[in-house]
Every structure is written in C-alpha cells, then in structure tokens.
Amino acid sequence: MKTNNKSIIYVNFAPYENAGKILDFILSHFHHVVVFAFNFHRLSKTQAPSTLTVFHNGKIILEKRLFQTPTPASLAFILLPIRSLTIFLQILWHTWNLKLLYGPFDIYFTVNAFTAWSGNILRSLGFVKKTIFWIWDYYPPIHENSVVMFMRRIYWRFDTIATQQTDHIVFLNRHLKTLRQKLCLLPKYCKNPIVEIGTNPVSYTRKINRPKHIQIVFLGVIKKIQGLDIFFQSAQLLAELYPDLTLHVIGGGPDYEYFREKANQSPLKVVFHGYINNENIVDTIIRKCHVGIAPYVPDKSNCMYFSDPSKIKRYINFGLPVITTNVFDFSKDIKKMKAGIIIPYDSKAFVKAIYKIISNYPLYQAHAIALSKRYRYTVLYKKIFTVQ
User: Fold this and answer.
1) Which residues contact 374 (CB under 8 A, 6 or more apart)?
2) What are the CA-CA distances from residue 168 to residues 106, 135, 193, 195 (Å)?
3) Domains along the chain?
4) Model confidence over 348-357: pLDDT tens digits?
5) CA dist 86 to 68, 80, 133, 189, 226, Å?
C-alpha cells in the first residue's frame, strides 16, 4: 500500500541500494521515487555506472547515467574529497531540476553521513521537506594507513553534523546508538528506533538431510578485511574431510586478483562469479549452496563492529546456516537461535564449524529459516518512515 501519494529521494552506494530489500520497500510505499546510486568500490570492469533513476508507481520513467570521477584503486582515498564534491553537486543539480517537475520532495532518505549532510542542505534550500538518516556505519578514526585515518576523521565530522541536524534518525544496531549517546550527540534516553537489515524469507526451502557435494558461498565486496583468507588457510584440512567441497565467491573488489591467485594454489575448487548486478542470479547461486560464510577479521579498525551484515540476512533467507566471527551485534542472534556457528578468526575453528554444521544439517537449516522469519523487511522498515 503506497503512502498517500508521497515522494522520496533515496541516496545510497552500489551494490547496497537494495540491501535487505530496502529499495523494494520504498517502491511499494511511495508514488514518486528518485534513486541516486553511486559507485564507491570498483567491483568489476563491467560494473554498471552510477545512475539516477526516477520511478512513478513502481515503474521507471527516467534513467540517467551520472558522472563518475575516474579513480585508480591506489588513489581512492586521496581523491575522496573530489569524488564527494562531485556526488554532492550532482545530487544538488538533479534534485533542483526534478523539483521543478514534481515540487519539493516529501522525504530525503539515505544511509551515509556525507549524503545525509547533503540532504540537510537540500532541505535548507527548500528542495525537500524532511530528512531521514538510517545510520549504517561508524568508521573508527584509527587505521594503519594515515591517509585512511585522516579521511575517517573528516567523515566523522559529517556524521556528527548529520546526526544533530537530520529530522529523523534511525540506527542499524544498538552499538551505533550507544556510541553517539556516550559522545553526547544524542540524549541518554532518546527514542530513535533501531531497525536492522531486513530479510525476505523464501516460501519454500529444500530440506536436506546431509549435503554430499558441499557448496559454500561467500557474498560481498572482495577485501581482505572480509576474512576470506580463512578459507584458504583451512583448504588443505577441508580437502581431507570433503574433497568435493566447492566455494562460490560472488562479488568484486580491490583484492579480487589476490584471492584469484590464492584459489590457483588451493586443493579445493573455487568458483569466482564476479560482481553480479542481477539479484535473481545471485539468489539462484545462493539457493544451491549449503553454508554461507562471513568470516570478518576482528580488527579494531574494522567498521563491521558497528554494522549489520546484509550478506548474512541473504544467506538465511534460503535457510543457509552461517559461519561468522563475533564482530557484529547480530552474531548473538545467530548463536542464540543456533542458525550457524560463531568462531574466532582461526582456521581450525573454521573447519570444525563446517564439520559440525554438515553433521547436524537439518537442525541448523531449520534454525536459519526460523531466524530469517523474525526479520521480515516488510514489517521492520515501517519504523524508518514514521516521521512526525
């Protein structure tokens, strides 16, 4: 049911613009939807460009390619201010033009601190009426790379301003909320809601007694901090237990070639699917697998401590038990529901977790399905757009 003919501008970064089906929810609740999807990571040579898409009643009526600043991977952080300025100017220019057609937009919605700050500028200019910031992240201002650390500190300044000036603040998890309360950016007893990444459980999940040819899947941006190294560190021992085991890697990113080289030396089969823009294709691959992995590296500079992994929500949509590290808040739910196994970042623990899941597969599969049903996006996201 659409929300009283309201209009919304939604800004996010690919490939997360429909993480947890958030874009699907917006399209089903707003008549006029403008989506800015900017590329941040270079995920593949064939990656779709940054785009502006305008929907009316769920149908595309305008699609426009946006300008992208050419950025070699080695200069990604150094040129971040130029890229950010380019993003801001495009949001400003296109929103002004669209305002002439549709009038001021009812809501400006985003999940990023810089684009939230941009939205508040648009509000002050009268382009939008209200702003919503669903806070997805916090980048600790510590890093071994001084340039990265400097950029994180600048980003935090935008985060601070956006948190204080946005009309409606929503948090992805309790860590993000308590952090800002401790820093006195929010009152101790603020009522801002916590809304996690939602799920979209499939209506039918194939019941498996014990997988024979085990298929493991890793979905996401290919970066070392995501922890994929643990699979290759465990490969020899895994091969002795499950010689037919296959790992499917879906995604692209800065360390793609690094892991391709690792796979060339692996005793187990690794299939790199690359970055896939079609969600249905991604879901088809995941559906055929048995275990989903998200072994994030437990490093103090890892922003995943303050995040909510959409990949895990996608795994459990199809009843895939999960193996992950104790990095994010959702790990407690996985452990409590026995929908997977939480491990230290250790190769032996990783192998034991796979063995335990495969040996008790019906139990873990059933619990993964049950957990997914507790986070249906159609129910969760209503709290985001309850703006007074």
Assistant:
1) 199, 333
2) 13, 10, 10, 13
3) 7-195 (3.40.50.2000), 215-374 (3.40.50.2000)
4) 999 999 999 9
5) 8, 10, 21, 38, 28
Global pTM value: 0.89
Distance CA 193, CA 1 (A): 22
| 386 vs 40: CA distance, rounded Å | 29
340 contact partners, CB below 8 Å, separation of at least 6: 292, 321, 322, 323, 324, 334, 357, 364, 368
Name residue, tokens 């969760």: 380
CB 245 within 8 A of CB 238: yes
Q: How many residues are present in the chain?
A: 388
Scored b (16 or more CB within 10 A) or e, 297-314 reads bebebbbbbbbbbbbbbb
Say how far apart CA 83 and CA 100 lie, in whole Å: 26
Encoded tokens for 71:
């950025």
pLDDT tens string 274-309: 999 899 999 999 999 999 999 998 876 666 667 788
Q: For position 291, what pLDDT does the model report? A: 98
In the numeric block, the tokens 């003919």 are attached to 5
AA letter at 109: F
